[in-house]
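Budget justification note: compute hours in this period were largely spent on complex prediction jobs such as the one shown. Inputs:
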Amino acid sequence: MKYAGLVWAGLWRKKARTILTMLSIIVAFLLFGLLQGVNHGFNEVVENLNVNRLYTSAKTNMVDGLPISYLGRIKAVPDVEHVSHWTYFGGYYREAKNAIPAFATDPEPLFAIYKEIKIKPEYLDAMKRTRTGALVSEQLAKQYGWKVGDRIPLGTSIWTTKEGSSTWYFDIVGTFDVSAYGVGFPSFYINYDYYDEAKAFGNGVVHYYLVSIADPRQATRVAKTIDTQFENSMNETRTQTESALAQANLKQIGDINFIVNAIVGAVLFTLLFLTANTMMQSVRERIPELAVLKTLGFSDGKVLGLVLAEAFILCILAALLGLLLAAMAFPSLRALVGDLPLPGSVIRLGVGIAALLALVSGLPPAVRAQRLNIVDALAGR
Amino acid sequence: MPAIVSLRNVTKSYVRGKQRVEVLHGVDLDIEAGEFLALMGPSGSGKTTLLNLVAGLDQPTSGEIVVSGQRIDKLSRGALTDWRARHIGFIFQFYNLLPVLTAEANVEVPLLLTTLSRSQRRQRVQTALQLVGLADRGKHKPNELSGGQQQRVAIARAIVADPTLLVCDEPTGDLDRQNAEEIMNLLQALNRSQGKTIVMVTHDPRAAGFASHELHLDKGQLANTTAAT
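Corresponding output:
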């Protein structure tokens, strides 16, 4: 600790250069924190998904749909607990830019399958009683200022009503808390029976069957049994676990892990040269001063330690500031990752990388300082 | 008086390119405790090389160097570093203060290598600054001080750890006449009132006049000794 003043003073010998280097490190670790945080958020969503739930869709493509008549046959498969279904309604509120992730479903088994979603029983009862009812997530209701009892119009560019209208009216009968799933989870449900009867075409079709099973170890067997039942039919099926489906969907927008790691890797690699250059320059300018320290009795090891300590303080302090900024900015990314704080593992990884950066960039100049010959250095050779 | 520094048949050679250059040729020298010795001689005569050997900054090619009863020519690099911290105070021509530290912090640097507590270090720093007449300039950085003041801070740094020997390499070489005289008066006072043994390299006969003895070095050999008047 008694050398702290010496290290700190050495660090600020050239204020402008130290500030600029620190800013570079801060920005790099802000980027690191945000990108790794998003990456971590995606991975967490996938990891939190459940293997007790199976998704059955058309083997060809989800949008081709499956007959609603499959419902009974899937329910009859051994080890199946509950079966519900989702059909994409899409839609928008007032303007096309206000997209609403609306799905037609059979609500009661749906909420039995998604036990993690919290909903009051009276809302489910109200949904059963109200054909034009809608259940919306608390988050979505808050976003648009909806409350129970409101009648809201949803426009759609896909489904017209039998009357030829592309605007549908729904009565909000309840809300639910979808925070366990983060953003992207369907958050607007309408009654499938009403939707199917009222639409002008494409009747009797659902996009996904959602199946819950009691024993996750039976997932593969149950999935295979379901698919085998419909083999060689007009509508063959493909059944996947929830996590397999989510991973397949994420793959569609590219390998996020790879992209994030490539960007962060490139930034940190560039930073390594920048920091190493700063440290090398700083030591080169201070050769007479370091020689004086050695003259006064500072050992080779102490001089090496002082230079390394400067590199560590520079890198870790700036990295912590960058990560702090990332933690403060992270909530603004809730559209991507939901209401998650910047994960502690990302902060720990960031500090670890900053320490490595300090070691790699600080060691060459520190060794140079350590090997300094006093007589030559004092003579300016 | 017993010799506090004793050199026997000391030689020092350097390799410059493919050539080996012998700078000191079999130097014998005794410096008594409490002596103020001025080493004089033309450029390239080996004054600074001799000073570096006495101060443990360099090792002789051959010969024996004993300082305060300890043979330092056989010490390892690390042991010599520790020895310097305990026994030698340095004063340079260009002061060599650390520009980012205040005068107080500069004076404190040698004490960081001791086991003294923070308050003990502060006490010692204040005493040293008082001794050189700069107690009120402790918070100033070197660039806020004149050349003479900077050299006083350097002297305070050299004496703060109470070393056995003060070595000065052209301590007045960068100062005007008045400041040079003040610095030499200060060194003389340290020698006379505190009993500090001082070895000083200088080109300046006026500075050498403050010493108790003068030694002349020419082409790597000691020429003659002059006692102070």
